Amino acid sequence: MASPGAAFSAALAAEDFPWVESQEEMGMAPDKYREVFDLAQRGARAFRDRRFDEAISYYSKALNLRPGDPIILSNRSLAFSRISQRLRERSAADSEYQPLNGLDPTTHAELALKDAEKIVSINSNSPRPYLLKAYALILMEHYHEAREALLAGLQVDPLSHVLQTCLSDLDSNTNIAAGARRARLDRTDDFECTLCFKLLYEPVTTPCGHSFCRSCLHQSMDHGNKCPMCRTVLFIGPRTYPISVTLSNIIQRNFPEEYAERRSEHETMTYAGVDLMPLFVMDVVLPCQKMALNIFEPRYRLMVRRIMEGNHRMGMVAIDSATGTVADCGCEVEILECEPLPDGRFYLEVEGSRRFRILRSWDQDGVAEVEWLQDIPLPEGSQERRELIELANGASELARAYIRRARETVRTARRARHLDLESMPGPQDPEKFSFWLVNLISLRPSDRLDLLRLRDTRERISSSIRLLSDAAEQGCRVQ
């Protein structure tokens, strides 16, 4: 049977991102729009040269600057679909003798579908988003859903020759119009995970031949590296271990409704689509602050192992003395150094980076949904902005004098490391500078928490100046 995606591949091409002269039409600053335009042009060139991975990289960078742009989303969706189709069309010999690393064809198609659905929600009056959606669904072998997407597109543009041609090609290649149906398998225990007793989701098959949900096996191996069924020692990493593609496709084709429920449940449990932060409850940490940690509790040792497999970042929060519960604000820290110790503990050196507010948390997982906090910005070139920078310049001179006096009093290397002038941010970034300034002073946790919540840069710098002046009168009290 000819590939039903061939007609889509021929009908769809990357769109050109327009250049506009009017700033109102840009909807953003000219220099930023110019950068988006340049990234989109590079992506288009890479797409035409069939360097789809490179094109996706350019389009993703452009979307970070201009989120939700339908043209860039459309082109990225098409690039994901082209990669998926190219991987599916590889011969068995090529796959055996020239193996590729990276995402499988189904995952690429799912990413293409995600972008296509975004475009449909933004621009539902054009047939192109429905073509992209149908293309991705065909690559996932969801032919009935693909046909429904094409029919929805024909409701928008009944005279679209492209939609009519693709629908005819899909019907002729898959026999959907004739009502052909494959006999579905019976739902048996063979398709259940023996750990959660539910339909397998993202199934992985161990070398000993047992299949589990990838997330279930991952949780099981947090407690030991043996197969949960036969206790064979497993030398695998469940987080990176490949999904059993054939088994996954069989389950999706034969139990689509239940699989959709499992997908929804999994997305809910993994909190997809939101900013998540693993939480370490200990002390108030501020941006620019460095500190050493000795991790010995089992739950935090597990958390550190997972973090070191990812982006090396976690959130640090304290108990709010006013409420007796976890504070509503915390600070993301980056792990600069991680030294595993023979007894299972970890020695960490971390540095505070960004502030966040906790929206909701899941105590059983030690994870929270967060939103990022920033100080209230002042317009560039405004009088308030100039006055703030002048205040920061004055505070930097006070800080230099304070550090010089502190160095004369405190001689130990451990103390002196915290008084390094080279790490001082420039006054041109007043928010970051204000936190560096606060870190020179010994404060109670409740006072530090108040400063963490504060969104007024001027007030934070002014408070630091008063505290530094008081500390200079009483002698150098430094962290």
From TrEMBL:
GO CC terms of this entry? cytoplasm
Keyword line: Metal-binding, TPR repeat, Zinc, Zinc-finger
Annotated GO molecular function terms are: zinc ion binding
Is Zinc-finger one of the keywords?
yes
Q: What residues does the Lon N-terminal domain cover? A: 274-472
Q: Where are the TPR repeats?
A: 36-69
One short Pfam family name for this protein?
zf-C3HC4_2
Per the database record, which ranges form the RING-type domain?
193-231
Q: What is this protein called?
A: LON peptidase N-terminal domain and RING finger protein 1
What is the species listed in this Swiss-Prot or TrEMBL entry?
Urochloa decumbens
Q: What is the lineage of its organism?
A: Eukaryota, Viridiplantae, Streptophyta, Embryophyta, Tracheophyta
